[in-house]
Amino acid sequence: MTTETLLSIEHVTRTFGQADRLFTAVKDINLTIHKGEFVALLGPSGCGKSTLLRMITGLIAPSAGNVIYRGDRVHGVNPYATMVFQSFALYPWLTVLDNVMLALEARGVAAQEQKARAEKLIDLVGMDGFESAYPRELSGGMRQKVGFARALAVEPELLCLDEPFSALDVLSAEALRGELMELWSSGQLPTKAVLMVSHNIEEAISMADRIVVMGKEPGHIVTEFRVELPQPRQRKEPAFEALVDRIYGAIAGRTEPEAKEVGTPPGAPGMTRILPRSSVDELAGMLEVIDAGSGHYDLYRLEFDLGIEMADMMQTVEMGEMVGFVEVKEGDIHITPLGQTFTEASILTRKEIFASRARRLPMIRWVMDMLHSAPDGLLPWKLFYTALSPEFPDELAERQLDIAIDWGRYAELIDYDDDDQTLSLDPSGGKSTPPIEKSA
Fold first, then answer.
1. Does residue 255 sit in helix, strand or coil?
2. What SS3 class is residue 412?
3. What is the pLDDT of residues 301-343, one digit of tens each?
4. Other CB atoms within 10 Å distance of the CB of residue 422
5. Neighbouring C-alpha atoms within 13 Å toward the C-beta of 222
6. Residue 433 confidence (pLDDT)
7. Domains identified in the chain and CATH numbers
8. Are strands 422-425 and 378-380 parallel, antiparallel or unpaired?
9. What are the CA-CA distances from residue 239 to residues 229, 236, 243, 297, 336 (Å)?
10. What is the pTM of this model?
11. In this predicted structure, what is the pLDDT of residue 29?
12. Which of 188, 295, 211 lies closest to 37 in space, CA to CA?
């Protein structure tokens, strides 16, 4: 493999908002991509993988640091890179041929050349015969093939893929992955390197030469793995499975001490931990599987046995760590004595156990403290949302509040009236919990 450098990312940081509403998506990222490489970015939801991809293609600019392509700093849209999104992003009123030709027109290709070049690309991705079809007539896999053809129309040196197979069913995704690898391996793609964001570890190992693992809060690079397995790669081979284990371990990390695991309340010094997108039902289901497996599980095997995507499972794992029901170490998950007690308890006892842990979480405790301080114990949802906005971007602030309400309602600590959008303490549990003592 040549060592010719195409892309260099130097100490890149990206923030959103300003002043007291500043949110750091990625911080101090350093990454180099060479000619001939297929690189995959892996990491938990919210670690800034897509944000990084958008800075590389020039769709957004870094707040600090430099994105450098072939020695020149990228200003505006990167003319050497193009993106394939997870959504198909085709114009529904245009035919397959017109969708691909549009990309050529945007790049200033002469009108007499557009059709011939577009037809060649459509044939390259296996869509010959569908030139006159509209997107509504195509399956998801076929639409994504058109998306690839349109991206390749501008002959990018760097092809950036943002979870390009995640919107497809399993069989279509597997077929398209195979076809893309065939084109890449045979040199038929007019690209010199590929950078793919993925949430699927097996997908990344199957396709990439190098895997970059990112962590979150804020997004940063944790480690890299070189994939030296011959193509085509066999997922059942011991070396493949061993690499899956190592990468899972890097993504999951290990359970931190409780003070660091749960973070600090909004507005207080320290890091406010983001509540993961999971529910008590999902957590309970995962705990039951782990408990039935002698109390511990390989995370890779757990994903397979639960039948869910890695990204979704890791949200539930993080929830279990926050409430002290599981511990993670070196790619394995272990149920704690408290988690085992929760799993084997009755419905009402489960609520009590979860309530005892949920009220310790700074985000939920912060909500309860504000309700304790209200004269009538009742406050509008909008007030909490406004208070959270300095901590998180708008969409994330809303999601954090909704998760806190869901967990608090299950634990019978918080009530929510959807009609007038107000929160109150649950009379069965909330008012028996004293407010947090403020340190001197």
1. coil
2. coil
3. 888 888 888 888 888 998 999 888 999 887 788 999 899 999 9
4. 16
5. 25
6. 43
7. 5-251 (3.40.50.300), 276-347 (1.10.10.10), 361-432 (1.10.10)
8. antiparallel
9. 8, 9, 6, 19, 30
10. 0.69
11. 92
12. 211
